[in-house]
Amino acid sequence: MSTTKTIDVSPETGEPGRARPGPFRAKRPPGRTWRQALRRDWQLYSLAILPLLFFLVFRYLPMIGNVIAFRKFEPGGSVLGEEWVGLRYVRMFLNDPSFWKVFWNTVIIGGLTLLFCFPTPIVLALLINELRGRRIKRFVQSVSYLPHFLSMVVVAGLVMEMLSVDGPINQLLRAVGHDPIAFLQEPGWFRTIYVSSEVWQTVGWGTIIYLAALTTIDEQLYEAARIDGAGRWRQIWHVTLPGIRPTAITLLILNIGTFMAVGFEKILLLYNPLTYPTADVISTYLYRMGIVSNSFSYAAAIGLFEAVIGLALVMGANLISRRTVGTSLW
């Protein structure tokens, strides 16, 4: 170890004076290595093994199969395809009018879903937060959460029963003198049915995160707003909404990332050949091309194209959010 010298500074002039011997300084102990951290907290790190295995097996390893988008794949042959064909399948779906029809259906349904399903949990969370009775608040939360736990088959069955020709909706129409409407056979009604059922199923579950974010807002901010004469609406606009803005922006970026991945199960259960013009989306088109028609390479090329669009949307939304509001995922 070596000695150091301390420089005296004059309080009047601020100029350095003579140097005087200072105390010995010991070397800073080295930081703990990752092996030492793993040995110390191995119980905590072991909890991450199963999630990592899940993502490895079901998310990363299947990416290898994307190679068949550029190779000719035949059932029963090589897993990675028989021969290299380059961008043949990419050119096929880019020149396919059917693909562009389902592409725009996906964009429209995804846009409507984002437009209605993203803000409604925020509105419901604000309304629940304004309730003062604890019992009624729990009742509203329980009722709004319940549809999320229903199976997609059950939800589709309920929608089909409600909208059938002899269902409750058409019974009400008959009661007011209106002719029954075949909702599930009319292409013009499908998007309304899908978005409405999606809002009903997801709005309650989405409020959980926002209600948790509302609890982190300092009560002193509300007291200061009340002292300044702000009413409930002013408090919501100037205190509550800015308090949950980082959470809302993060969820918005994630929702934009799944913009193209419109719910496959629900659409597959609700649509039929009569509603293909407005209901057929990329995921259902991939199902018919890949599973039904055995065009695996063609379906892989379309799926890869959809994934690239989703990645571009996430990165673009994250960049815009970081530059405009200062909140982003990374």
Kindly describe this structure:
- The chain has 330 residues and is mainly alpha-helical.
- It has one domain (70-324): MetI-like fold.
- Helices cover 64% and strands 5% of the residues.
- The strands form 2 sheets. The chain has a two-stranded antiparallel ribbon with strand order 1-2. The protein has a two-stranded antiparallel ribbon with strand order 3-4.
- A hairpin with a 6-residue loop joins β1 and β2 (16-21).
- The chain starts with a strand and ends in a 6-residue tail after the last helix.
- Mean pLDDT is 85; it is low at 1-15 and 22-26.
Please give the share of residues in helix: 55-70%
Tell me the major beta sheet: 2 strands, antiparallel
Q: Helix and strand succession?
A: EEHHHEEHHHHHHHHHHHHH
Give the overall shape, derived from the CA principal axes. Answer: globular
Can you identify the CATH superfamily?
MetI-like
Q: Number of domains in the coordinates?
A: 1
Question: Which whole number gives the mean pLDDT?
Answer: 85
User: What is the C-alpha radius of gyration, as a whole number of Å?
Assistant: 29 Å
Termini gap: 42 Å
How would you write the strand order of the largest sheet? Answer: 1-2
The name of the CATH architecture is: Orthogonal Bundle
CATH class: Mainly Alpha
Task: Provide tags for this entry.
single chain; 330 residues; mainly alpha; MetI-like fold; two-stranded antiparallel ribbon; two-stranded antiparallel sheet; 16 helices; 4 strands; 64% helix
